[in-house]
Inverse folding.
């Protein structure tokens, strides 16, 4: 049972994840905040015999949101105020992070401020007067270093005192322009009269003046404040001509003025700042001409790392499943079952589990490298370098890495869209990734092109498919240009200093991602595989994938649709199997054609043009079940998932049609 | 001075006057603590000309797209001499980047922090010093000389 709920709320790049890991260890779960594409991380730890649930709020610069992450953080704090909040500030740059701290301190929620990265600040010669900081903020302030573990025990001790109500906190006062100050004070008095709230009255008054979602969240908990909210809006309207900017900007200005004063009083900077490592690294890594080649080299190394290491592991797992399948087939209890049940268990359920397992090595490796790139601070640089190119597709620079990784495997690439900013970017990238020519598709293309084309031509066919894949991605980007998936967000990205990634953080990330994949996508994948089993093995008694099976009948029914593409009944059925995993397409053709040498049979029954059309269709049509399940879990939307399928099927048909009919016109 | 165009090029520093333009950008910057009165410097531009890397006081580095940065109302604080337009505008040398040898050479030319000059032609770069002397500078040298605009008498 959870005794206390504590939220970690901090600006990006303050070491939030490191502190979170430090406090909870591997005891954490990853999910989505309801209805949005923002990751929700929760963990548990024990504090003096009490069970504490730690909620990792998305990175936020402010509780007046300008991004989906900030909205999630704000809504959480307003709707379900936790028992305490841990706020983290960057010892190396207090000003940047104090805006949020002041807002949190003003909220009246029990707060502990952790001044992180003390080790780095000390090295730079920065001195901080913690007593002054604590006095002005009115809440406990603890110097820590989440990386080294310094101050963590003290943080826990203070947190316990705060949770037990033994610390008297007094929200700081921030001066606003007189007219605003007066209005806020009057509203606060009215709020105070309605009885005690979990928030400070001034903070509530400001939220009501901000209006919109912020006011609504307050009113949802406190409907009795409806009339004050109305008055607040009237006052805002009356104040507007007297202020130079809107209320949120005015408040931000006042807050940061206070922050600047606080920094001046509490921080002593070294007289001479040496050019630090980040600046030196950036002169090469961000160089106008060298930057891109170095980036491509790093991407190549990452790609190699993921797939050169991952493929043998995948094969080993596949062999393991094959062995288990054989062993189960021969085992007594399975043999005792009716044939149809046997097949359901082995060809449906076990095959589904096999598909899930086959992704695990790739996901571990992918997130291992991704988190190296992210934690080191290079990700922001990569996004900087690629932004111009990706902006043409209305994406930002980070999306390049997601799209590129899709050429290895769509599943981790879709999972990786989480690093992108704004829901729009995430959804758009998710819809584009399935058109990249992944390694599974490559297997099919290598096999078919070797059979159907002369040795000199086959590599060009595969190359052409890569080009086509690229063209389709750009086309999808252009097609979706007019659509907005969620609020558009301006591109303002911090370039954090380079840091050495922590092994612990990197490994924990890989581990939690694996668990998240199993929890969130595995069921859908197994169900998808079983659905295909039903289509190909039922009604009872038919030979699998035969013309009498459901898939066979559907294949025949669909003949008018597929004939114009030069795709015959047998290949149509194999496309069903390709939905499980694209590389299965080949194996399924062997089953469908029955006995004989597969290569010879294919060469005899498919012309090169028909084969090309089949390959194009395979490239573009619906993403495989694992990708779809991941799109569903990442987008938290069936609409987007269905759109992905529809987009694939329609574009596949169009391209195959153009290529097949065009080829015929040219006389092939 | 605000009538001087602020070129968004590496080395240019400007002061934010107002967070106008696209209000979403303005809101975001305000919430990140980038507010009127602050001086921001363009550190570098991305390959292909976009985005910009800006540094703000405290050492924070931000990436912003040029079209969004242009929406900010900024006045020019200083820029590398290489980017100064030719004309009547007088410029004062704020600092000389670069090593001792470079400084020594500039010293012999009469260019030290505090020197005021006018840009006569930009290509080749010729400047006229207060005493009327004409000095020719290389583009590489001009990139290392940071100048600020001197207010015009009629301003």
């Amino acid at each position: 049972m959870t005794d206390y709920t504590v939220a970690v709320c901090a600006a990006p790049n303050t070491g939030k994840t490191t502190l979170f890991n430090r406090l909870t260890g591997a005891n954490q779960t990853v999910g989505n905040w309801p209805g949005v594409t923002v990751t929700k991380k929760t963990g548990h730890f024990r504090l003096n015999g009490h069970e504490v649930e730690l909620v990792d709020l998305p990175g936020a610069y402010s509780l007046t949101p300008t991004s989906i992450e900030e909205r999630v953080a704000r809504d959480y704090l307003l709707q379900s105020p936790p028992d305490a909040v841990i706020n983290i500030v960057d010892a190396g740059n207090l000003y940047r992070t104090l805006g949020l701290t002041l807002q949190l301190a003003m909220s009246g929620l029990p707060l502990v401020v952790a001044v992180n990265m003390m080790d780095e600040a000390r090295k730079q010669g920065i001195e901080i007067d913690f007593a002054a900081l604590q006095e002005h903020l009115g809440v406990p302030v603890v110097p820590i270093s989440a990386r080294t573990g310094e101050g963590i025990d003290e943080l826990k001790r203070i947190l316990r005192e705060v949770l037990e109500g033994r610390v008297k906190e007094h929200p700081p006062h921030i001066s606003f322009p007189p007219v605003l100050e007066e209005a806020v004070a009057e509203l606060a008095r009215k709020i105070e009269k309605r009885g005690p709230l979990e928030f400070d009255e001034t903070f509530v008054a400001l939220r009501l003046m901000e209006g919109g979602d912020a006011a609504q969240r307050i009113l949802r908990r406190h409907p009795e404040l409806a009339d004050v909210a109305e008055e607040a809006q009237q006052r805002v309207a009356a104040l507007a001509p007297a202020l130079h900017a809107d209320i949120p900007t005015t408040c931000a200005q006042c807050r940061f003025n206070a922050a600047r004063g606080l920094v001046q009083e509490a921080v002593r900077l070294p007289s001479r700042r040496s050019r630090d490592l980040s600046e030196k690294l950036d002169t090469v890594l961000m160089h106008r001409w060298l930057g891109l080649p170095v980036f491509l080299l790093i991407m190549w190394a990452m790609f190699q790392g993921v797939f050169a290491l991952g493929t043998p592991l995948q094969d080993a797992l596949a062999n393991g499943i094959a062995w288990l399948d054989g062993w189960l087939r021969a085992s007594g209890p399975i043999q005792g079952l009716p044939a149809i049940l046997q097949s359901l268990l082995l060809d449906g359920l076990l095959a589904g589990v096999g598909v899930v397992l086959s992704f695990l090595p790739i996901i571990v490796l992918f997130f291992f490298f991704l988190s190296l790139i992210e934690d080191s601070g290079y990700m922001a640089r990569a996004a900087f370098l690629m932004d111009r190119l990706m902006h043409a597709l209305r994406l930002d620079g980070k999306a390049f890495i997601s799209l590129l990784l899709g050429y290895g495997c769509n599943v981790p690439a879709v999972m990786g869209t989480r690093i992108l900013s704004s829901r729009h970017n995430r959804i758009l990238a998710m819809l584009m990734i399935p058109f990249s020519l992944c390694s599974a598709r490559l297997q099919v293309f290598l096999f078919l092109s070797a059979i159907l084309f002369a040795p000199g031509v086959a590599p060009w066919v595969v190359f052409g498919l890569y080009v086509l894949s690229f063209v389709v991605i750009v086309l999808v980007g252009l097609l979706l240009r007019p659509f907005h998936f969620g609020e558009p967000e301006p591109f303002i990205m911090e370039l954090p200093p380079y840091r050495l990634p922590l092994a612990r953080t990197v490994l924990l990330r890989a581990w939690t991602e694996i668990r998240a994949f199993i929890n969130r996508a595995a069921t859908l994948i197994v169900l998808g595989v079983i659905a295909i089993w039903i289509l190909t093995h039922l009604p009872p008694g038919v030979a699998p994938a035969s013309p009498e099976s459901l898939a066979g009948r559907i294949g025949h029914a669909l003949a008018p649709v597929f004939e114009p593409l030069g795709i015959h009944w047998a290949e149509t059925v194999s496309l069903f199997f390709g939905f499980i995993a694209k590389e299965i397409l080949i194996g399924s053709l062997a089953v469908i054609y029955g006995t004989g040498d597969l290569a010879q049979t294919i060469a005899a029954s498919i012309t090169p043009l028909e084969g090309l059309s089949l390959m194009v269709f395979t490239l573009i049509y619906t993403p495989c079940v694992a990708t779809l399940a991941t799109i569903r879990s990442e987008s938290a939307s069936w609409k987007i998932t269905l759109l992905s399928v529809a987009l694939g099927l329609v574009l596949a048909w169009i391209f195959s049609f153009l290529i097949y009919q065009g080829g015929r016109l040219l006389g092939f | 001075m605000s009538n001087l165009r602020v070129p968004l090029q590496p080395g240019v520093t400007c002061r934010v006057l107002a967070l106008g333009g696209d209000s979403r950008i303005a809101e975001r910057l305000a919430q990140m603590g980038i507010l009127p009165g602050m001086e921001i410097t363009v550190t570098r531009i991305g390959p292909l000309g976009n985005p910009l890397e800006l540094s703000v006081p405290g050492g924070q580095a931000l990436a912003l797209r040029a079209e969004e940065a242009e929406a900010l109302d900024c006045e020019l604080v200083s820029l590398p001499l290489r980017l100064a337009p030719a004309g009547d505008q007088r410029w004062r040398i704020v600092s000389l980047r670069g090593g001792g040898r470079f400084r020594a050479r500039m010293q012999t030319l009469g260019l030290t922090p505090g020197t005021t000059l006018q840009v006569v032609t930009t290509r080749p770069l010729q400047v006229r010093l207060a005493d009327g002397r004409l000095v020719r500078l290389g583009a590489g040298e001009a990139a290392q000389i940071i100048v600020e605009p001197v207010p015009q008498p009629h301003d």
Q: What stands out?
A: The longest strand of chain B covers residues 73-80.
